[in-house]
Amino acid sequence: MSSRVKNKQANRIVREQLAAERRRRRTVIVSVAAAVTLVVAGLVGFVVYLNQAPPATYATPAHATSDGTGIQVSSGPVPVDIYVDSLCPNCKRFEEGAQSTLDDLVAKQKITLVYHPIAILDQSTNPSGYSTRAGSAAGCAADGGKFLEYTKTLFAKQPAEGSAGLTNDQLVQLGAGVGLSGDAFAQCVQTEKYTAWMAHNTDAAAAKNVNGTPTVLVKGKQITPTAAALLAAVGQ
């Protein structure tokens, strides 16, 4: 074979190798582009899913805050948030000691008062769950426009830790004492309509590092749960 023929064959082989390399590169580029497109499409789809995800399915009482974690009982320039558990003895002492102060600040429209019923003492009754049931009943009272009155009654009739707690029938009877004598309130309490709401409240409080009751926040800052500290923080 002549050198000329050998050169042509060598050139042809080189050209074929170069063409094969170009095809390989194109295949890689197309594959990478397709993969990137799929990833982007997946991310877009996930974002759309999040935006279209259905809202939480738990029922929310009347007068609930926009985030669903509390019940607003008054309006005023200074925000006051109170986290309470119906079985908490310290909550009862705070309510008794600060009740007249809170009532005065509410009457004078000095504060936006929001109660956050939570259930951190559910295991302290036998059977467990009283804190959740009582908080749910307070939600039912909110539907009837008597949340604050009912909350006061819950603390006035607070059962001892380690007891069975008040029965649902007794929680209904407490409502009658503050003017909640209709069938709607009784049914709401008996079906424990707002237990999922209570679980949401408790989880939301824990996420904000609220792990004890009473926790009192004025303008978002925690204060000592006393009437004097409340007045000082509000600016009265």
Itemize the secondary structure elements and their pairings:
Elements lengths: L2 H50 L18 E2 L5 E7 L4 H19 L3 E7 L12 H14 L3 H10 L11 H10 L5 H8 L4 H13 L7 E4 L2 E3 L3 H8 L2
Parallel strand pairs: 2-3
Antiparallel strand pairs: 1-3, 2-4, 4-5
Helix pairs in contact: 2-8, 3-4, 3-5, 3-7, 5-6
Describe this structure in words.
The protein has eight helices and five strands. With about 240 residues, the protein is an alpha+beta fold. It has helices at about 5-50, 90-105, 130-145, 145-155, 170-175, 185-190, 195-205, 225-235; strands spanning about 70, 80-85, 110-115, 215-220, 220-225. The chain has two domains: about 1-55; about 70-235, Glutaredoxin (3-Layer(aba) Sandwich), CATH 3.40.30.
Number of helices: 8
> Gap between N and C termini, in Å?
110 Å
Major sheet: arrangement of strands: 1-3-2-4-5
Q: What CATH architecture of the largest domain would you give?
A: 3-Layer(aba) Sandwich
Structural class: alpha+beta
Overall 3D shape: globular
* Name of the CATH class of the largest domain: Alpha Beta
Radius of gyration: 32 Å
For the secondary structure, the number of strands is 5
Give the tally of structural domains: 2
Q: Mean of the pLDDT scores?
A: 85
Superfamily at the CATH H level of the largest domain?
Glutaredoxin
**Helix content bin:** 55-70%
CATH overall fold name of the largest domain: Glutaredoxin
H/E element order = HEEHEHHHHHEEH
Major beta-sheet overview: 5 strands, mixed
Unreliable spans? 32-55
